[in-house]
Amino acid sequence: MYASRKNTRVVVVGGGGTIGSSTALHLLRSGYTPSNITILDTYPIPSAQSAGNDLNKIMGVRGRSKVDMKLELEALDMWLKDELFKLYFHQTGRLDCASSNRVASLRQQYQQLVDAGKGLENSNEWLDSEDAILAKAPVLDRNRIQGWKAIYSRDGGWLAAAKAINAIGAALEAAGVRSRVSGAGSFKRPLFTSDGTMCVGAETVDGSKYYADRVVLAGGAWSPVLVDLDDQCCSKAWVYAHFRLTAQEAAAYKGSPVVYNSDVGFFFEPDENGVIKVCDESPGFTHFKEHQPYGANAPKRISVPRSHAKHPTDTYPDASEKSIRRAIDTYLPRFNDKELYNRTLCWCTDTADAAPLICEHPRWKNFIIATGDSGHCFKLLPNIGKHVVELLEGNLADNLAQAWRWRPGGDTLKSTRGAPAKDLADMPGWKHESVAKM
Ligand SMILES: Cc1cc2nc3c(=O)[nH]c(=O)nc-3n(C[C@H](O)[C@H](O)[C@H](O)COP(=O)(O)OP(=O)(O)OC[C@H]3O[C@@H](n4cnc5c(N)ncnc54)[C@H](O)[C@@H]3O)c2cc1C
């Protein structure tokens, strides 16, 4: 048990987002005094520019590594049982599909689940034919899934993402956790002792200073822009769009599993208003600029997110319209003529090996980095903050500390994806200049 939870002051930068809100929640649950926890974010929780502020996200146990498997199983348990989270998990099942040369790696993924010794053979099923896939998702069109194989996972489903973060926000507010937004919440730089080695707080863009024993930087895609991370994170945007079904149309899709294919993208059952979200799959888009993060000696080329909250008329590249339409044509061809809206660029930050970067800054004692989500951390909302608190208290498990350590080098532009990200400068169609007031 950490000796001084009651007296330790913690500032969580990005507390309106996924990892930050989870961290603040676990500080509270671990017995930190609410008035000693300060959440800083540009926007109120759930932050309008957080990657987690979304209609829905996929939940599933994929177990790409032992560490991932442990975290995913822990998260699954909390999504199912934790009073705060269970309302937001819709366990509709999940279909992971592939065809042609991708089938071998899907089969390998299935085998890993079965061999993990966690009983996953009981909730995962290999589907070897179109008939077997259609039996799980009758809404799919047989002509569009010729030659497909799939893993059906009964454990999986979707998460009402923004609502879940909102619930954390309500719990934090009710407990009296301090939160600052706008200029008073936007991180500018860490504050240090006179020798510059120990962090003692954070300053925000309006000049406010928040003194603390620990500062956690959970700035998502903005993290490498705010503080020099030695090029360990490259921020990239992915896209989605919405369309609306009539009540009658939506009824047929109620309870459909999430369907994912890495060549196509994914979709979810409609929400209570008949809205379907469709994502394509791509290596993402960067937005390189000359920029000097705090701690860098000089400006450098770095991918700087362009917030859709600050630029609400931005959409996505013309090329994404084609790939989103292709996903709709594959999964939902009867809705090919539906009007799309909420075409959005949503920002995450990739590490080279797709594991998060969650560690103390090597030169700044008490400054904790909690980022590098690599586009798959929302499902860990219930538990990731628990491990950030462990790190803060010096008891993070060795395997997590090893996976999440400070580790410069590697190709963040490609990461573990099929190809390097393209830059938005080369992708016409997304930029529409109108700046929202905060
Ligand atoms: C289209 C899309 C689909 C996805 N689908 C899935 C999925 O199905 N399943 C899944 O598990 N994951 C999914 N993800 C990934 C998931 O959303 C992210 O991994 C996760 O939300 C990242 O959390 P984060 O806390 O690192 O960043 P965020 O949630 O983005 O939080 C960062 C916070 O930092 C704040 N901030 C920025 N600048 C400052 C500043 N100067 N001062 C203070 N605060 C600041 C922001 O306002 C924000 O609140 C998806 C992502 C995208 C884009």
Automatic annotation (TrEMBL):
Keywords: FAD, Flavoprotein, Oxidoreductase. The lineage of its organism: Eukaryota, Fungi, Dikarya, Ascomycota, Pezizomycotina. This is Fructosyl amino acid oxidase. Pfam families: DAO. It comes from the Eukaryota. Residues 10-391 form the FAD dependent oxidoreductase domain. Belongs to the MSOX/MTOX family. GO terms for molecular function: flavin adenine dinucleotide binding; saccharopine oxidase activity; sarcosine oxidase activity. The keyword RNA-binding does not apply. InterPro entries: FAD-dep_OxRdtase, FAD/NAD-bd_sf, MTOX. Its cofactor is FAD.
